[in-house]
Amino acid sequence: MEGMGANQNNSAKPRARPIVRLGIFLISHSNIVSVVCFTAGVVALLLLPILAKNTYISENALMPGSANNMLSTHHVTDANKFIKDLTDMEFRSGASPMERRKLMAHYMSALDAEVTFHKFYPQFNQFHPLHFFTGPNSDIISENATCSSFGINTVGIIRAPRGDGKEAIVLVTPYNPNKVGMGEALSLGIAYSVFALLSRVTWLAKDIVWLVADSQYGEYSAVAAWLREYQAPAFRRVDIVNSETCNESSTFNEFGQGLCVDGKLNGGFRRAGTMAAALVIKVAEQGNQYEDSLNIYAEASNGQMPNLDLINIVNYLAVHKQGLRIKVKKMWSLLGSKWLKTLGVIFESLGQIARSLNPQWKFGIPATEYVEGAATLASSLYYQGLGVPTGPHGAFRDYQVDAITLEISPKVSLTKMIRRNEFILRGGRLIEGVIRSINNLLEKFHQSFFLYLLTSPSKFVSVGVYMISFALLVAPLPIVAAYLHSDASDSVPQNTSAEVDANHKSWKWLNSARKVLVVHIWGVVVSLFPFFLCQVPNTTPTTNFVLWGLLSAYSLPILYLILGSPIFEAVASRHEKNTWASLKSVTITTTFIGLSLMSVINFATAEIGALLIVPICLLARPLKLDTQARSWRTLLRASCNLMLGFIGFPPVAFVLLKGAFEDFYGINVGDYWNWLESLWAWNSATYLYIAVVHLPCWALCIHILFHPC
Amino acid sequence: MGLLHPKATFPLSLVFLFLFFLMASAEEEFLEELLLKPLPDRKVLAHFHFQNEAPLAAHSFARHHHLFPKSISQLVKKFHIKTMELSFTQGRWNYERWGGFDPISSHNAKPPGVELWAVFDVPQHQVDASWKNLTHSLSGLFCASINFLESSTSYSAPEWAFQSALGSLRYGTLPREAVCTENLTPWLKLLPCRDKAGLSSLMDRPSIYRSFYHSQRLHLAMPTAASNGSKSGIILEQALTVVLQPDNQKAGIDHVSTKIQPSWSLSSIFGRKISGRCVVAKLSNIYLHVERGPVTQLENLQKKTSKIAANDTGPEDYRRNSVFELSVTPERVHTELEKSSSSLYEYSIKDYKDIEQFDLGLTWKHPVVWSSPHAPLFASRFLMGSGNERGAIAISLKSTEVTEGLAAANNVEERCKLQVNVLQIVPWYVKVYYHTLQLLVDERPQVLTDFVERMRVSPSEDKVSPGVMELVLQFPCEMKSAVLSIEFDKGFLHIDEYPPDANQGFDIPSAIISFPDYHAGLQFLDKSQSKSPLLSKLQERSPVLSYTEVLLVPLTTPDFSMPYNVITITCTVFALYFGSLLNVLRRRVGEEERLLKNKEAKKGVFFRRLLTNVSAKLRGRPSESPLPPPSSSSLFVNSKLIFRVLIVAGIAVAWQYYSQ
Prior knowledge:
The complex is a heterodimer.
Chain A: H1 2-8, H2 18-28, H3 30-51, E1 53-54, H4 73-91, H5 97-110, E2 114-120, E3 151-158, E4 167-175, H6 182-198, E5 207-214, H7 219-231, H8 239-242, H9 247-258, E6 274-283, E7 293-297, H10 308-321, E8 325-327, H11 332-335, H12 338-357, H13 367-386, H14 394-397, E9 402-409, H15 417-440, E10 452-456, E11 459-462, H16 463-474, H17 476-490, H18 498-535, H19 541-563, H20 569-573, H21 576-601, H22 603-619, H23 623-629, H24 632-648, H25 650-661, H26 669-681, H27 685-705
Parallel strand pairs in A: 4-5, 4-6, 6-9, 7-8
Antiparallel strand pairs in A: 1-11, 2-3, 3-5, 7-9, 10-11
Helix pairs in contact in A: 1-2, 1-17, 3-13, 3-16, 3-17, 4-5, 4-6, 4-15, 6-15, 10-15, 12-13, 13-22, 16-22, 17-21, 18-19, 18-21, 18-27, 19-26, 21-22, 21-27, 22-24, 22-27, 23-24, 24-27
Chain B: H1 11-24, E1 29-38, E2 44-55, H2 70-79, E3 81-90, H3 103-108, E4 113-120, H4 127-142, E5 155-156, E6 169-174, H5 181-189, H6 205-209, E7 213-221, E8 233-244, H7 249-253, E9 264-265, H8 266-270, E10 283-290, H9 292-305, H10 315-319, E11 324-326, E12 332-335, E13 343-348, E14 361-364, E15 377-384, E16 390-399, H11 401-409, E17 417-426, E18 430-441, E19 444-446, H12 448-451, E20 452-458, E21 467-476, E22 481-490, E23 506-508, E24 512-520, H13 533-539, E25 542-547, E26 551-553, H14 562-586, H15 589-603, H16 606-619, H17 631-659
Parallel strand pairs in B: 1-10
Antiparallel strand pairs in B: 1-2, 2-8, 3-4, 3-7, 4-6, 5-6, 7-8, 9-14, 10-13, 11-14, 12-13, 15-16, 16-22, 17-21, 17-24, 18-19, 18-22, 20-21, 23-26, 24-25
């Protein structure tokens, strides 16, 4: 507000302090500033693949690959025997899932491991409106768990011979005992070969836990159930287990006793110290055509990542020792896009020019590399932003354990024996190397980054770099808000007395704030609707979505009537002209606050959200004013606003994003519901962001667009 | 100590010395023994036991000794030690597989790292001082950082849960202490023959440190004479317990198929043989302890074949039977009182020639599966919760076959009770809330007072003392499982209390679970009062004791570059504060307003006045009339500025030019 006044009588005054002058300058040129900042933000985002650094092993104690591999063909032969026994059961008549577990337990205990079975009731995803941000709770036992639906994890523990048992490394192989695929059997084989080796080695300092997760109710839920029992057990007996109707439980007990012969198997749950790291091993069913490759999945809930060193070790060992081709997820649709290629070419030529000027400036990368990097970066951003873990490793991150999923995909189908041996040897040696590195570690993983985006398996963008683009994107928001606020207060008619004027100002601001608050409360209400919709039985996603939309649409006017009773409306209506500016200023401020908060919780969501919501927040202006002006500029602005408003609508944004990442085929309305359902089921903060920040801000922007000035 | 290295060229002097020794130290004794025991999981336990006794003669004690180490007697004399035990341990004792209900496990299974406890014979107020001095002395003696136990945060004074009725006891552990040869060497120096002769010559460092469990123990005791209650002498017990894996190439490969235990011999597990006894040792014996399991199986097998064989069990029969075969015939066999119980084969070491060396071997002929006797309850301890804020410690007790048998036996009689003593010591940075102590018996929450007989809690004091909780619990014998859980908050350490590098976390020392109603002891049929201290140790009725796991608590580790950030931000805040404060102090608001009013009066526009007022406030500058802006001075400033810029640029150019 002072800025404009200051500009007017600047000449008469002595020069203000530079910082104030700078502020005034920025505020008075907010249009240019916002355009420049936003463009710079987008450009900075596009530059990230170029700015990415090569990864390096930051923690010296890890020393990956400095020891010779001890995994030999003996272990592979043993593993092959194990696989054969396991797959042969498929053909034998009357082989129950329990038989398979027994077989695994037998093999494990033959290696002198402590074997236990962990029985769990899978938790079906349910919407708990107040369980966002709370840690995993042992008291949540889903009501609809029945006796018939339970899983049994098989757990083998090797105690380090001379270790003190304070720490453990966890190996996880998801496995469905009802239906054995070749891939799952092979992943078990790889884990078995490593386990067989580790039960004999003398260098082990941390205990090794091999969890064969029963994945018939999902890989994640099996691992999560085991972790819950490990970290936060409920000692109280669950009554479902003991009810008379459960025959299965008694058979389970019998079975547990049956294996207790040699004194190695004890029915109770076993633990092995604080977990240092966890590796989930999977083998893809169908391979790619060219070579053995390794996919790394690292994203856990709410965009949390494991320490970069863990990925670095895997990357180093896979590439330099085992000759595996390593991959991280990419956005395939971006790979073929023309504009990205052009951009890559431009950056490449810029880099060449720079190099010709000074040979020490090396920032250009080849265009193809740029496109690849951008595609990987986009997918990294997307999966972090989604806040849903990309595999069973996500369950570990909830307990501050670094974990990744390694999916090894073979070159050809693994029916051939010789090929299979080599495959197991490679996979086993990789896992052995990683475990040996982690085993060396005397500390927690702390040395490398936790906040990063990957642009390729060996390149990353750290938080210090990628937050620049976000900062640039949101920087115009407070400036424009300040400008609008001062503008709105300045243009108050000046024929009234000072007090009334002051009153008007505060009233107007409060009016807009109240409106914004009401809309945000509406957002909270909308976010809670699914909880009630879930209670309605027998609904399809589409009807749920439609119901939700209707409820949301109706609840807004109702809430407005209840909360937004026009206390100051009479006074405010006299200056109807400028209310939109004040409203926009408050909206922008709340958007800024919301985005900043979100960037702390899940940076990627905030980044994507800023890309969607910031343009419309900056541009929003009543269409009426624009159409009245009738210059090409205002018309362009109006159409831009309409388009951005359309894109900003959450379901539309979802369809566009999904189309960009997967494809447009077969998208229906119900998908949005399903997507949101998955978000809240995984306790993703993105759901809260969409409902409490994005949706109200978007609604307010639309309100401004159709403001009756 | 010339007599330790008797030279063949001076036999006469040797004899003379030996006689002299016998005369002078009629009561100083040294005995060496070794107990070997095959374990159910294909491993072998070797337990060396050395005992050194000295009389408490006032004139020569701690001044001159023939066999007893002088350094230890000086320690005893100086710090008035009544009883003391120091142990260095690497690895964990596997209570499940190696047993928890025998004298070896309750005396020699120790928590990883260093454990030290001592009872002093001094007035109460001097105990702490004696302890501190003792830790420093031991630290020097054993090349270990026992001196860290000096700090009052690391030791405690349990009153009755650990070693009852011993008086002024101090107890401390260092779970992180690494154990290696430099701790063993000073320990061996206390032996009269070191490791040059006798049983200790078996201690080949690589094979000992390759073991799965390694614990060296030093125990000092002052037995009181039965007649007058005064102390008669001092007994120094040194024990080394190792669990070794017989190096068997064949068994390593097809371990899945064969069930036969690996055969071993002294030379295969230690890589050495015994060439003779320690000359000064009064007793030098080797025992082979075969547990109840194999003996029972052997008897069953013999019953089948007894029709053919005559029923005499001569020593040759012990040596060679259908289950195993020994390479040397035992001199004596001790069997336990009960039917079908463990037996002990005794060998005494004579002086051997160079060619003929003692090498005891055991070859298994028949696959035997057995399990060692377990403690009444199997205790394990773990941490619950995650994150850097809070957590919980849980001690879970599970019944084993011992209590199951008891519950069946005592069904008719009055309710049988099982007493369990728990001693839990927690460092101060784990802030335990004792009111959150919960007890669940058979998965049902129970009222604590129904089960707790006695309880003593001394809460921790920040940076002064650890928290100690002693519990005496009475459980019904038919109980299947019990869980004790207690919640804690993680405290913050001072910056210099953190280890210099990033750490994995901090340790909570092992809890001690003891069962005072149960006594681990073997009753041998042999009535002949053997002088062997190891045998008497085995027969001693001592309460069953087990240690739980050491826990690792990850504490919040600060970013140690943080002080820099804090300094920066504090300086910024201070600068802003003082800047604005000076600004406020310097400004004269009244004067300012008066001038402004004058000015506004000229213009006569109210709104303007308001705006300028506000803008002036914002700028924090007195909005006085612009007095000193003569154009010349500003020009001067500008030229000066340009001049400076030029100088800097010139320097930069020069630098660039000369640096290349």
